[in-house]
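Field guide to reading this record: the first block holds the primary sequence, the second block holds the structure written as discrete tokens, and the final block holds curator observations. Each block starts with its own label. This record concerns Polyketide cyclase, catalogued under organism Ollibium composti.

BLOCK 1 — SEQUENCE
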Amino acid sequence: MEVTQPLVARAAMLIRRPPPDCYEAFVDPAITSKFWFSAGSDRLDAGRQVIWTWGMYGVSSTVDVKELVPGHRIVIDWDAGTEHASIVEWLFVPRAGGATFVDIRNHGFTGEPDKQVQQLVDSTDGFSLVVAGAKAWLEHGLKLRLVEDRHPDMLVEGWKPR
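BLOCK 2 — STRUCTURE
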């Protein structure tokens, strides 16, 4: 198999909250942990490195924050320097009625073409759950546990959600 175009995983959805609220949900780990990871070491801030932890799976990732445009855009380098490194970009596009179109794009996959395609598929799957979970939390205050329930056989023994 030959990959001739850059691979970009994309997940997007309308969230009926204003862009600043949607943006804040992804930069503040106290909010993000309601629908994605279980803990973040700090808020996202340009030039800062943070650690995101998925306690339910016993894994963490290092994130280098490359760019923040409050209420509009987030760019991170995820797991820089590892075989899983990639760039993730969030766009927060204002829509009528105070809603936001949240558009998440992941690219820069490395390795053999088969591996890149698998990263693309996994990323699309994961970010689709993330944006759906964000919608449920931001619009209705519902904690759906989508990311946690995606791989129930991989949960850390004794894991208790908050």
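BLOCK 3 — OBSERVATIONS
The mean pLDDT is 94.
The CA atoms of residues 57 and 155 lie 5 Å apart.
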